[in-house]
UniProtKB/TrEMBL annotation, chain A:
CDD domains: Pep_deformylase. The keyword Metal-binding applies. It comes from the Bacteria. Its cofactor is Fe(2+). It comes from Micromonospora haikouensis. PANTHER family: PEPTIDE DEFORMYLASE. GO terms for biological process: translation. This is Peptide deformylase.
TrEMBL record, chain B:
Residues 5-79, 91-163 form the ACT domain. This is Glycine cleavage system transcriptional repressor. Coiled coil: none annotated. InterPro entries: ACT-like_dom_sf, ACT_dom, UPF0237/GcvR_regulator. Pfam families: ACT_6 (PF13740). It comes from Micromonospora haikouensis.
Amino acid sequence: MTTEYAGLAGWTPAALPVPGEVRPVVSAPDPVLSRPGPEVDPTSDEVVRLAADLIATMRVSPGCVGLAAPQVGVSAQVFAVDVTGHPKALTVHGTFVLCNARVVEAARWKSGREGCMSVPDLTGDVKRASRLVVEGLLPGTGASVRLVTDGFEARALQHEIDHCLGLLFLDRVAGAHAIYQRKVYQ
Amino acid sequence: MSELAITVIGRDRPGIVADVAEVLARLGANLTDSTMTRLRGHFAMTLICVGPAAADVEAALAPLAADGQLLATVRAVAPDGAAVPTGEPYVLAVHGADRMGIVAAMTRVLTDAGGNVTDLSTRLTGSLYVVVAEVDLPPGTFDEVAGRLALAAAELGVGVSLRPADTDLL
């Protein structure tokens, strides 16, 4: 039987036995972004390699706080998150990857404007829970973990779990008038 | 490929969007950016389309407007490509008792500060007047603009708020 840990039980990217490679990030309307990803075997070599690649790709992408497998063209329920240092983050679990993650508790819904690397020209107002409990499996060991988080990390987790289910923030915008052209400043 | 600016407005009824969109699709007019909304019982559509000539679209929409319930206009516009970002995004909200000149006074403050309105809606319900706008402001002007808006609002006897439309990139 798998042991269930609260938090990440000391997991860090160093636990992955392979170095990650940067993969190209795909943009909408690539159909992979709209397809629900299948559950994965978190102990498989393929998923471990994917986990390392997601972290590597996230790290070279400026401002990126999370990246899901469909965003690198792989339909699978795997994502990486790291909100370390973000000004809106409260609880921070550092860099981690979860497989087959599920939201098990969600409360205190708050509206916020979101953008996504895979929808580079638009933003949208989306309600997300600011108190969140997520369960998932760690890549490599396959250990089951339960993360209790809030604020910005909670928003990032919901956004990435949505990617794994084939949903973009566009599927959750608050109304017909809640998408905006994204503005980029230099 | 000509770019067309099309407006359709008329008494609201179910099916206006489907009727107009069908005409455009049949002509091979690709509907790009648009807003379509109900304004006090009128349905107003503002569309940018790419494809056929303006005259063809006008002719095709004419039967829809024949009963006098819909007014359609079509004109060719020069494609201007992607909008150039002009500043940092903010959301302006104004509400208070209806009176003349609220939108004029508020947007004049924005314009004088080098700001640009990218989206704006107004609603009048009973005596309550509401304005919500997306505004780009030049960097570093927020405090001054907020102060001037507050002054203008005080003169009009309405409330105003200006807040950053900051985006979380995920």
